[in-house]
Amino acid sequence: MEVNVKNMIKQKETNRFFLRFTEKAAPVFFLLCAAISVLTTIGIILTLLVETTAFFSRVSFWEFISGTEWWPFGENPTYGVLPLIAGTMLITAIAMMVALPIGLASAIFLSEFASEQTRKIVKPVLEVLAGIPTIVYGFFALTFVTPVLNTFIQDLPVFNALSPGIVVGVMVIPMVASLSEDALRSVPNSMREAALAMGSTRLEVAMKVVLPAALSGIIASFVLGISRAIGETMIVAVAAGSTPKLTWDVTESIQTMTGYIVQVSLGDASYGSTAYYSIYAVGMTLFIFTFMMNILSQYISRRFKEDY
Question: Which of 99, 154, 155, 188 could disulfide-link to 172, CB 3.0 to 4.6 Å?
Answer without folding.
Answer: 99
